[in-house]
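Need tokens for this chain, all 283 residues.
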Amino acid sequence: LLLVTLLFGVWVGGAKAWLALGPLRFQPVEFARVLLMLFVVGYLVENRTLLHLKHGWAAVKYWGPLLVFMSGVFLLLAVQRDLAPALLLFVVYCLLSMTIVFSWRLLMIYSGLALSGFTAAYFLFPHFRTRIIAWLNPWNHADGAGYQVLQGLFALKGGSVLGKGIGLGLGEVIPNVHTDFIFALIGEELGFVGTVAVLSSYLIMVFIGLKLCSESTKPLEQYTALGIVLLWSVQTFMIVGGIVRFVPLTGMTLPFLSFGSSSLVAQMWMLGILASVGRVNIE
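Here are the structure tokens for all 283 residues:
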């Protein structure tokens, strides 16, 4: 999916992340990351005992293929300049592997890779530097890189406790409000109460997913549920955290709320997988 996107995709918003089939345009990475999560879980669970071998050729033999494959995925995303999904997948992969096969050495390796990747992205990709600048000091770039960040903050503040009312927000002044910044518009129109309700809904989904994970007796279903919960929660954290300036902006969609058919189909797919895990547990 990612290779086809690299060869035949179209550029939108600085990233070659879209495929166009006649009037239909979609983002293959939305589906690729679900498949990738399923593969990682399957590989780690199937080889869990062997992956605990930490030294010599044994470690290279079983960790090597997984790391080479994941490096290829991240390289494809980097060439497409689609860095946000790459960051999401890297974080979810690290959390899954550390949960299934914990190792302090592995933690050090992942920390080094994260630092190296951040440094390389900062010097290689101008739009990444722009997002860092907008995150650190948007006020000095209010007419440029910091404009979107500041408008999102103004919208959240303008909503106060109860909001201005549905349809009364100034969404037209926030760039990409229908995708990246839908949470800011929710805060403006529904206020603090509305944002708490939205975040509470996500917490409920995470709680249900973790409950299914803990109740499962089969490792494959257990960690599949955990992988879905991580995809949801990390993505939500990255989006909401970017809007409130806790972390840099990533430009991804907010699960189930942002505009985008590819994203919605992928989220519903994961919801169906999670429901299937719950059904297996009941049976």
